[in-house]
Design goal:
The protein is mainly beta and about 280 residues long. The protein has helices spanning about 5-25, 100-105; strands at about 50-60, 65-70, 75-80, 85-95, 110-115, 120-125, 135-145, 150-155, 160-165, 170-175, 175-185, 185-190, 195-200, 205-215, 215-220, 225-235, 235-240, 245-250, 255-260, 265-270, 275-280. It has an eleven-stranded mixed β-sheet, with no helix packed on it. Strands 1-4-7-3-9-11-13-15-21-17 form a ten-stranded mixed β-sheet, with helices on one face. A hairpin with a 3-residue loop joins strand 5 and strand 6. The longest helix is centred in the N-terminal third of the chain and has 19 residues, at about 5-25.
Length: about 280
């Protein structure tokens, strides 16, 4: 079959026009070397190599009442120090990639942003939206005055709060949450992992702990005053060394009154997990 020279010429002209249009800018026909590639490079193939950097900051506490931290990945440990007058923030930044050179090149994209606001000291992990297969991790170790309220939001990683004499809030996607020596209300929301807490509830305070999958282990003083409720879907509920008045029990829930019922304690495992509450 013969080809038609006229049709071939038209095809070449159309193909040339498409190429110039995709590379040119503003109809001027100039090649735009900053245009995104037609075939983007694939993400990194592994995360066997790591680059590390450290960060530290100290913020004097003046009129602050709240410390908040928002992390993407990594371990977060916040400890109250009696008599402390500043917040000490120590962080280890890590990027994991397919080569040491690539990890080091992208380490500068991982930042710790600290804001000294009027009543709040705020810390935030800043990293690329598209990690292209790399792991961006920041592990935090923080010490602060015991009287500051603490709020932590983390996307994966273990969170530990120790010796805080104020309200605490932890929202975590995955990873265990541990509370030690907390004197205040506690709001804990976890997707997957174990919540373990030792909390002294103030009068009219609230303990609200929820996990989709995982156990809740709570220790409270024997003289705690609160309306109590616990619910599971698949799991068990156990209470020891506490007197639960006006108790109501089903196969998946227990409720009643501790002391004079001035505060509230609400515990829930939504899909699976056991709940254990003990008095000390």
């Amino acid at each position: 079959m013969k080809s038609n020279p006229g049709n071939y010429s038209i095809f070449v002209l159309l193909l040339t026009s498409v190429i110039l249009t995709s590379c040119g800018g503003g109809g001027g026909g100039d090649i735009n070397f900053n245009a995104p590639p037609l075939f983007p490079l694939p993400p990194v193939s592994n995360t066997d190599f790591e680059a590390v950097a450290v960060f530290s900051a100290e913020i004097p506490v003046v009129n602050h009442t709240l410390f908040s931290l928002s992390g993407e990945e990594g371990v977060v440990t916040v400890t109250g120090i009696p008599g402390a007058t500043s917040v000490m923030i120590n962080a280890v930044k890590r990027v994991q990639s397919e080569s040491t050179e690539d990890a080091e090149a992208h380490l500068q994209e991982l930042e710790v942003n600290v804001q000294d606001l009027a009543t709040e000291i705020r810390v935030e992990t800043v990293q690329p939206i598209d990690d292209e297969g790399r792991n961006y991790i920041v592990d935090y170790t923080v010490t602060l005055p015991v009287f500051l309220a603490v709020r932590v939001q983390n996307i994966g990683g273990i969170v530990t709060l120790d010796t805080i004499s104020n309200d605490v809030t932890v929202i975590n996607v995955g990873g265990d949450i541990t509370l030690r020596n907390i004197l205040g209300s506690a709001l804990i929301d976890l997707l997957a992992g174990t919540i373990e807490g030792q909390v002294t509830l103030p009068l009219n305070g609230a303990i609200d702990m929820k996990t989709v999958t995982g156990d809740i282990i709570l220790a409270i003083p024997v003289n705690t005053s609160a309306e109590f409720s616990a619910a599971v879907n698949i799991g068990t509920i156990s209470i020891s060394n506490l007197v639960l008045q006006n108790e109501s029990t089903t196969s998946t829930s227990r409720s009643g009154t501790l002391g004079s019922g001035q505060g509230t304690i609400t515990l829930e495992t939504e899909v699976s997990g056991n709940i254990s509450v003990s008095g000390f």
